[in-house]
Write a structure and sequence with these properties.
With 337 residues, this protein is of the alpha/beta class. It has 2 domains: 154 residues, Quinone Oxidoreductase, Chain A, domain 1 (Alpha-Beta Complex); 151 residues, NAD(P)-binding Rossmann-like Domain (Rossmann fold), CATH 3.40.50.720. The protein contains 10 helices and 15 strands. The structure holds NADP nicotinamide-adenine-dinucleotide phosphate.
Length: 337
Amino acid sequence: MTVSREIHLASRPAGSPKPENFRLVATELPEPGEGQTLVRNTWMSVDPYMRGRMDDAPSYIAPFALGAALEGGAVGEVVASRAGAVPVGATVSHFLGWREYAVLDAAAATVVDTSIASPADQLGALSTTGLTAYAALTRTAPVRGGDVVLVSAAAGAVGSVAGQLARQLGASRVIGSAGGPHKTKKLLDVFGYDAAIDYRRGDLPGQLAQAAPEGIDVYLDAVGGDHLQAAIGAIRPGGRIAMVGAISGYNATHPAPGPDNLFRAAAREVTLRGMLVSSHFDLFPEWIGRAARLLADGTLRTETTVVDGIERAPDAFLGVLSGANTGKMLVRLGAQR
Ligand code: NAP
């Protein structure tokens, strides 16, 4: 019998989530049945979209159930198996994070090649995180040679990949926005941005005008609100905006007002297009091949912010919503460190 500690949704938040919305629970797991595996999770991902799943509201993905374990991306080691394709000792990625052990149907586990990337990168650059940047900048708001590109939440998981990718795709100038001097320095020193905006200093339109005096062609929007408004204010004719996320509003208790300059998008024939990474999974093989090469030759630089222990997973999640992470926020689990 395996005892697994897991994080349950104890209550739904109003506004910003709090530690009391989560509960640590010890559960006895059944032995894996025919076609199943027992996985000891070593790493799990915490992501902004999980905030939406804490609400009992219809969306593109079902709400988390009250009183049950949360779910999310994880990587682990197979410790027992009754599925030939997923042997004991394999490293697998799957979707039953927020727990130390998981019993999984083999079909729900993907064996990953840890020789091409670390488990951390398997949950970051090589996962839906990296794919989001790739799909946004190749399909939703494609970067063309010579473009000026703006990325928000630029020091985060998606943003740190997106800036480097924009350069690979031919951008002439890549501008990132992030919160605080530590992160803006990282944008310039590590993630290859040409200019960095610290939005916490205020006057976003003024800072953007200074960083991009001629305006921008592409904007990857992870934030919404004031960032989207400033980007529309700076966009050039024919510009493209990938609406990837709107984290500035995820904890809002009342809907935030929309940008008041949308007619500028009409007058400049700008494309504003939403995207969900799940609609671009066909790009996964292409992206993984490309990202693995870029990681191997050092062209793509990634960082992780690591929190240890399942009991601290809620802290890691609250941290990602408030900007405690640089690069991908991950939780390291168990003895496999
Ligand atoms: P992340 O950027 O690693 O972490 C979130 C970051 O958002 C924080 O580190 C924080 O950085 C920033 N932030 C928080 N509140 C903010 C505010 N009010 N204004 C500006 N920045 C704020 O997370 P991620 O996983 O890479 O996700 C980034 C965005 O992409 C999110 O909006 C997420 O929902 C979205 N996303 C969408 C898809 C899709 O399929 N559409 C897939 C993946 C991710 P600072 O310290 O810089 O504030």
